[in-house]
Write a structure and sequence with these properties.
- By secondary structure, this protein is an alpha/beta fold.
- It has a single domain, classed as 3-Layer(aba) Sandwich (Undecaprenyl pyrophosphate synthetase).
- Helix content is 43%, strand content 14%.
- It contains seven helices and six strands.
- Helix 2 runs parallel beside helix 3 and helix 3 packs parallel to helix 4.
Length: 239
């Protein structure tokens, strides 16, 4: 990676796309593509922690993914459980703080317990903030936040006209985290897919064509270098 550490994004979000296509291209079952993708996941988390990224958010399973075949959903849930069982010791040792974004109550019992325990075990850690979006949908998150504020207004805790952006952000899963600076979606698909719709308002977006299982550290460094070269104006103009 070139000398761009002083311009690293504070918050990187990744849509890990292409596991199924990778499996098909290698004449393998989809589950094997997802398993290979966890190897990439492991490497990217380690690198993000080592180079000083403040927050890393990964889209692991959307609210729409339940529509996939029972076999694929089962494989993903098994991988989720396996990941937290096998990786939690190292993540904790590396001072990583885990947060789950999404409706944990909608997960099967073993997976729900695994993610709750991971959050509790690492909640005091002060290193990389690792956010894993599971059973997550951006529209659902925004609706949830709006309902919570409406309930506060109904209880007389606040007035509608006094609601600020800060009040709204405090009701999101990402409360306390910086907005997304860089969104990466692998596989070349050019859409956001209901991921962090509010938090990505001014995110720089990159869409490398490489499939997630083949997304290397060199690819990650290239994305970070590309971000460092961007001129972020947040709606303003350059002088």
């Amino acid at each position: 990676m070139s000398d761009t550490r002083e311009r690293l994004p504070r918050h990187v979000a990744i849509i890990m796309d292409g596991n199924g296509r990778w499996a098909k291209a290698h004449a393998l079952q989809v589950a094997q593509g997802h398993r290979r993708g966890t190897e990439t996941l492991r490497a990217i988390i380690r690198e993000s922690s080592d180079i000083g990224i403040e927050a890393l958010t990964l889209f692991a399973f959307s609210t729409e993914n339940w529509k996939r075949s029972a076999a694929e959903v089962g494989a993903l849930m098994n991988l989720l459980l396996e990941y937290f069982t096998s990786e939690i010791d190292e993540l904790d040792e590396k001072n990583v703080c885990i947060r789950i974004l999404g409706d944990k109550n909608g997960l099967p019992g073993p997976q729900r317990q695994a993610v709750i325990q991971a959050e509790k075990r690492t909640e005091a850690n002060t290193g990389l903030k690792l956010n894993i979006a599971i059973n997550y949908g951006g529209r659902d998150e925004i609706l949830m936040a709006a309902k919570k504020l409406a309930e506060k207004v109904e209880r007389g805790e606040m007035r509608a006209e006094e609601i600020t952006a800060g009040d709204f952000e405090a009701e999101l899963y990402t409360q306390g985290l910086p907005d997304v600076d860089l969104l990466i979606r692998t596989s070349g698909e050019l859409r956001q897919s209901n991921f962090l719709l509010y938090q990505c308002a001014y995110a720089e977006m990159l869409f490398p064509t490489v499939l997630w299982p083949d997304f290397s550290l060199d690819d990650y460094h290239a994305a970070l270098d590309a971000y460092a070269r961007r001129d972020r104006r947040f709606g303003g103009r350059t002088s």
